[in-house]
Amino acid sequence: MEHLNIAMVGATSQKTMRLLPRLGKKATQKVAIADHDGIVTCFVMKRGEAVLVLKTLPWQKISRLDLGGAAGTPQEKIFVCSGSRIRGFTKKGKQFLTFEVNLARDINAMHVLGANLFVCASYIYNHYCDCKDQDYYLSGDKINDITCLSSENLTRFVPVLACQDRVLRVLQRSELAYDIKVPGPPSVLELYNKDGGEEILYGTTDGQIGLVEIGESSAATKWEIDNDKKKGGILCIDTYDIIGDGVNDILVGRDDGTVEVYGFDNSSEPALRFEHVLSESVTSIQGGCVGKESYDEVLTATYTGWVTGLTTELQKGELGPGDEVRISKETQSKVEALRVELEQLQAQVLQGRQLYYQTFQPTIFIVPNFSINDTFTLCQDDASYSLTLEVQAGIDNLLLQSDVPIELLDVDKDFVVVSLSECDSEQPNGSFLLATCRCMAYTTRLKIKVRTIEGQYGTLQAYVTPRLQPRTCKVRQYQIKPLSLHQRTHSIDQERPMNRLSLVGQFSFAEIHSWVGLCLPEVPDKTPAGANITFYFHNTFLGTQLEATYCKGEGHFKSDNISTISILSDVLSKEATKRRINLNILHDINDDSVSQTLKIIHPKLEYQLLLAKKVQLIDALKELQVQEGNADFLIPEYRSILDDSTILLEEYKKHSAHLERLYGMITDLFIDKFQFKGRNVKTKVSSLLGILDNYDLNSLLDFFNEA
Amino acid sequence: MEMLSILHLPPLESLAAHLNPQLMTPSSRNPTLPLKADHFQSAMTERTNRAATLAVRALNMSSMLAAYQAELCEDMATNLDPVLWEEIQLINWLVNLDKSQTFAAKAGTRSIATMLVPIFTLKLNHKINPRMVTVGKFDGVHPCLTAATQAGKVFIHNPHARGQRPAAHRLSQSTQDSDISLLNINQAVTCLTAGTLGTNTTGDTLLVGSQTNLLAYDVHDNADIFYREVSDGANAIVLGKLGDIPNPLAIIGGNCALQGFDSEGNDHFWTVTGDNVRSLVLCDFTGDGKNELLVGSEDFDIRVFKEDELVSEITENETVTSLCHMNGSRFGYALANGTVGVYDRTARSWRIKSKNHAMSIHAFDLDADGVDELITGWSNGKIDARSDRTGEVIFKDNFSSSVAGVVEGDYRLDGQKQLICTSIEGEVRGYLPASKDLKGNLMDSSAEQDLIRELSHHKQNLLLELRNYEENAKGVSETNSGMGVIPANTQLQTALSVRPATEAQKAHVELSISTPNETIIRAVLIFAEGIFEGESHVVHPSAQNLSGCVRVPIVPPKDIPVDLHIKTFVGGKTSTQFHVFEINRQLPRFSMYDVAVDSSAAQPTGRVTFSINDRPQRVVMWLNQNFLLPEGVDSPEVTFNSLRGGGLLSISMASNGQITLRTDDIDLAGDLVQSLASFLAIEDLSADADFPSYFEELHTTLTEVDEFHSVHQKLTAAMADHSNYIRNMLVQAEDSRLMGDMMNMKKRYRELYDLNRDLINEYKIRSNNHNALLACLKSVNQAIQRAGRLRVGKPKNQVISACRDAIKSNNVNTLFRTMRAGTASS
């Protein structure tokens, strides 16, 4: 497939581009897209040019776009939501609906079905029929997306909410029917069959896709696709038969710019058929026929507002050399036209600039506003955080500042020059990381990996300066929580020996909830409904677990990792002291838990040690091989090291500093264990490191028991 | 011997079997050994052989083995013995590299009209050392890709003449791949090139440099042309004509020294430069029709030599790792920090910086527009071709591993030159220049799409900017405090001043930035090259210490003028959005010198005196421009304190135009002389100098050099003795093994092991001695360079060549006299 730029609009949100249904059998489809400037654009492609059908006036930022229409008629009415208002347009551009929903927050997800509007605003779900309030539900965590099932088999609508706490909530009127646990925080929902059916596709922010069948009282997961290749999170999904085998394929757009097409073999498991990488995050994806009749296309919209087509039509080659020239001429003339336009604009801008700096003397400068699309997420597999920043105008430079010790791992772009600056970490409130990233080439999206240490908490700040005149920069703050490497999970293994921490004191439910929120990631901002709540977490690096149960005046935490308990108790008591609340803290330390944790760490540590040893040998073995001519004389173990050397090296690179981190955590464990017993064992740390260097599980366990 | 090998092939039981007991098959000839002893023996041999392998590494054993092989061959002539044969086989197998395979070259079938694709791809199963790749026509006709590989070998890929050639001397045929021949250099190769050196050879000469030697080798005749010891090492090599010297020279750059050899191995050219040489290129820099030598070195300078006269100097901000000639006076360069760019004489046309490192650069006309492009091979395996004028990428491709070298040659023998790119894993790709009708458009349609995209983005940005101005013009409606709103009269004031050391802080240059009103400075980013660890320095005051004034201490490590690009984030105390002020300031060259108030401190003993024909006012101007003087000075009599702890610096000018610089730092004196001379446009300047303490030091160094030399010779003799022992012992041990005399064998191998350990220790001593020697030689070369820098133009070259002569004749007194007075006579 070839990729072709079609049009450009303002920055777009997730799921804001749709194709209107086709009219004739072979006719091309119209594209409807809404952007952050509040403009709804609808265009049709004619001879490679986008011809506008509809363009509304700028208004508030549009967060979703959906198509609707009376049941049985083509779904070609355009609905957009911005702020707390929903507007409807006909395909001719007539506005036939404005509807102000009565919700405290801005709408972030919407689904239209006939006369029914399903609207979500952070925690709230609302159902309107003919603009009349019908149902209402308050979810336990933020709602990311909504879809609604309606089919003959089902007696009523079944709305499904994708909630941040890794759960799909299936509703029945205003009540929760049941929930479906999914492996990651779901970000997008789409009907598998557009005409109905009970199957729903979901995509998660950590890049997984799955299909679930929704029943009356329970759901069944059909399949799931893991994110082995560590691609970005899913932002949009569509189904369309692009391959042409009669079965609908799944089109997926990710936040790292990857566009994927999954097809189905004879088995019902999906298989990756096609992949293309764009430079910006893909906010909407649609399959259809846009550019040329009878040529199917995958249409994508990116964050910066580019509409790009991946067409099945060959752009060159097969049609003979004459055609080739024509197309390149077309693009050439496009380029020319653009250049002329640019020159005119440049002149205009120069004038504006002069006005701004000289003649016109306002009392104040307004610093122009711009928006940043950013995420700060924990990657499960290497237990590091990845910060992605996306700016429509392109990033000129970025300043990273952190008041906690964190390690900057890498930046994925070639022409980004990263430079670490000296830090004043000794001073109070000093910085531990000061780094500049200067973009040499035009870059709209940056991904930076950082590694945190549990127990050390604070803020990471990113000052983003885009390529805009007058120069401005914007700060983004990211909290690094004390238990930064923990992730929410659905259940934990209750069999493990656990350490307990109990708090009793005069605090409200909301207070303890906010304290827990300070310590752990993925805790909803809103205080949960009900009198008490239980959250489960697991440590992505070590695999240890944590259970937090609390209510008004009481909090109970269970973990098999002593260090986790120690960090929690430190932070919680500090927070309580800040608010002058007297806390009664009780520790119940289970000595078995330490050896349990060490046993969990054991395979990781052993693997890392072996890897390090092997990698150390590679160079020497290679030289031997060259010197001797071949490697046949080596014992099989060494030969296998030589054969796998590239894999080993890659693995080693991927797990850089893994060993140091494990050592650090074992040391913490050691110190914490004895701290709870009231002993300071810092002097013994060096002998612990000595044991680690000649690692053996039993001797380590003995050391922990004896010391 | 060849006859024997064909007629009489005894079964081969390799040494490998002893290294690996599991592989051991019961030998048909030797069934008498009991099983237990067998195991024991295997274990023993494994251990001893490992030790022997170590010795191989330390000693470059392969040459020894070859000698041993020759001995065996002699024995073989008298005594036909399968055991001996086995021994020979073993040695052969050890010496030769093996298992190299050429995958069939994919002929360029795909049309080049749509896009540039490699016309051939080869996988040579040899690693290639970075930057050590060349193409030579060793028989005068067929180009051969030649590159240095691991373990001190050079391989020559010759796919054109697939004939058997005798394996002898240095050259040995790779056992499996007849296209590749291997050259044993027996030393780590540091640079190589090929080209016409002598007039009477048929083809190109291969030149291979190592840390201690330079070898000129005739591949075609399989003979050494010359083998010269070069004490300064050969980090870079270039072959060609220089200036008026009639014969082509092989010019090598070592530790601070440049040497040029002709086809007989006589050195016709010698000069010194500021630091270790990393890259060399010949190019007509001045446009006089003769080549000048461009030298890139580790002190970040590119120096231009017209024969041994230094005509120009360009200061960059990192080690100059590669240079290449583009056309005319234009040349490309690459730095160790990932910068690549093009200079036209001393003016930089463009440069770009990447987080990857440029491994190799080359000029090649890939788009057939008549102008060479700069082809860069990067450490991440990327190859790109950039327009000579603008630096715009016109073509790119990717290797799976780092690029080792980029060269050109007519590899398909069809009369067209190809661009040949090699990766360190031994992958080779050849690209033909584009055909004419492509009109310089090498990118496929997706690249065009990218261009449209970029232009559209540009347009979008301009529109956004326009909207910003319009909004500003409309006036203020949203006075949201979170939004950055700052008073219009906000102007930033910057000032540079010199701060002497206090107890809390080291001496530094202070850059203070302040706002005139209540706005605060959230952060200051300074981008500058060569004065910070990275390319930037950030000051980010903590939330409590926010104010409208920020003081940034700067400590420039060298006396170079630095452009500071300052970005200041200005806004309100609680703003999340800030206005970015971008200011450029220049730090003068000699900024780390503070005017001394009391001159009671001891005057420096070192001094340099010279006369100029210029008004004192001009010197005052120079002072004001190049020093950070708070009030400026009005007379050319001034004394400074060096903040780097170098003591006092005093400058005085007599009424007759005689200037005396007093300092103990000879480098500083040189810098001052050069700076002043270029400011006053003085072409020739001779000077009288004396730096007693420095000269004293140099004197000690010179004595040390002699000592190191004698130690070196002693050690070499000892090593030769030991090698003989090893040879004997190995033979004895193997004899005992074959005789089944385990006791003796064990004993021999134990001895061998001890001897080997001794050798390794000795090697360490030798290498330490060698390094110390190199360091001394470097400082001697630097001393000459420094003495030269006290003068300008002709007197400078006279000093350098006179010093060189003094060293050649080992006349220390003349050397010092020359350094002081500028001439050897008197």
Question: Could you explain how this protein is built, in words?
Answer:
Chain B: It comes from Scomber scombrus (Atlantic mackerel). Chain B: Residues 279-386 form the Ciliary BBSome complex subunit 2 middle region domain. Chain B: Residues 452-479 form a coiled coil. Chain B: It is found in: Cell projection, Cilium; Cytoplasm, Cytoskeleton. Chain B: Residues 692-789 form the BBS2 hairpin domain. The complex is a heterodimer of chains A (707) and B (826). Chain A is of the alpha+beta class and 707 residues long. Chain A has 4 domains: 2-228, YVTN repeat-like/Quinoprotein amine dehydrogenase (Methylamine Dehydrogenase, Chain H, 7 Propeller); 372-480, Immunoglobulin-like; 486-590, 2-Layer Sandwich (Double Stranded RNA Binding Domain); 593-706, no CATH class. A 6-stranded antiparallel β-sheet of chain A has the order 39-41-42-43-40-44, covered by helices on one side. Chain A has a 5-stranded antiparallel β-sheet with strand order 34-35-32-37-38, with no helix packed on it. A 4-stranded antiparallel β-sheet of chain A has the order 1-28-27-26, with no helix packed on it. In chain A, strand 14 and strand 15 form a beta hairpin. In chain A, helix 4 packs antiparallel against helix 7 and helix 7 crosses helix 8 (685-693). The longest helix of chain A is centred in the middle third of the chain and has 39 residues, at 321-359. Chain B is an alpha+beta fold and 826 residues long. In chain B, the strands form 10 sheets. Chain B has a 6-stranded antiparallel β-sheet. Chain B has a 5-stranded antiparallel β-sheet with strand order 2-3-4-6-5, with no helix packed on it. In chain B, strands 1-29-28-27 form a 4-stranded antiparallel β-sheet, with no helix packed on it. In chain B, strand 13 and strand 14 form a beta hairpin. In chain B, helix 4 (61-78) packs antiparallel against helix 5, helix 9 runs antiparallel to helix 10 (742-789) and helix 11 (794-808) runs antiparallel to helix 12. The N and C termini of chain B lie far apart (68 Å). The model of chain B is unreliable at 1-38, 51-63, 95-115, 163-168, 437-444 and 476-482 (pLDDT under 50). At the A-B interface, strand 1, helix 1, strand 29, strand 32 and strand 34 of A face helix 2, helix 3, helix 6, strand 30 and strand 33 of B.
